[in-house]
Amino acid sequence: MTANGVGLRVNHLRKTFRGGSVVACEDVNLEIAEGELLVMLGPSGCGKTTTLRCIAGLEHPDNDDAIWINGRNMTRVPPKDRNLAFVFQETAMFPNLSVRRNISFGLDIRKQVPRPEIDRRVEEAARMLRIEDLLDRRPYELSGGQGQRVALGRAIVTEPSAFLLDEPLAALDAALRVEMRTEIKLIQRKLNCTMIFVTHDQEEALTIGDKIAVMHKGVVQQVDTPHNVYHRPANLFVGTFIGLPPINRFACELQQNGAGLELRSERFVLPLAGEQAARLEQAPGRRVTLGVRPELMEIGAEGAIPGTVRLVEMMGSRTLVLIEAENQDIRVLVQGEPGLREGERVGLTPDLGRAFYFDERGQNLLA
Which helix (DSSP H) or strand (DSSP E) does residue 190 occupy? Predict the structure, then answer.
């Protein structure tokens, strides 16, 4: 079974409510290539679901040329004529119908596909989703994960141009979420279909997305690969929102020291070298926010930042160590068990070569 891949473009999308007093989306621009899986990521209320609903036709953008599918302006085209499949957080199955009939429902009401073809599509989708032995059950006999597979099957059999998934795993427990996100990625690869997946869970986004669009307050902050979103955030919001535990932040100033450049804060003075120094040498005297991921802080007996161990938290194969340094909590993530005790004095050394440098507007100076 193959879904028809499509190029999908969101063009300067603006969506307001209450007569324009509430701006849900502002100048949203997205390009989703044929066969690509784009994840829209952001906190609750950032506009990602509104954007998805505008693509589906369930909401009407303020501008008339916001949604383009396969080169056609579909902004004012009714949802039923867009050939898009929408999978919601709630599975919304008909309790009186069997799994088979729930999956085929969209095709049944169209009355355009012959019954043998509908049966073939349902059987094929069920095998792909590993629910072929559940086709004669009723929804109340299904687990949460099985219910989501049925919802996916209902979308797959319509052979849509693109799949739109709005937090489909939010109601599942942690272990099942991990299993289902892998299933969704494998299905998307097998179908080679265009897919937009909305979530507030950064781990989901980093795991399944070909690209991630990070949104905040209705504005797209960065659209990039998972690798670049994590390692080269465009601004302070992206750098802080992506990554658990979040980055450690230090207010600093770039200062010239002879022929070199150094980073000064209330807690440390560190020389800059290599590429970072070369790219920042035109900014002496500039105030910056240094961002260092917890896994890029080294703990030793001595270091540039002295501190005291406040808490040691086991996280399976890794350990999170909370260090207090002059009234600031610094999080350090290490592999294995570091053998540290609460109250122990330690020194921290940040990896400046892989740190982030944000200007006063929050933009990454090295992105």
Answer: helix 174-191
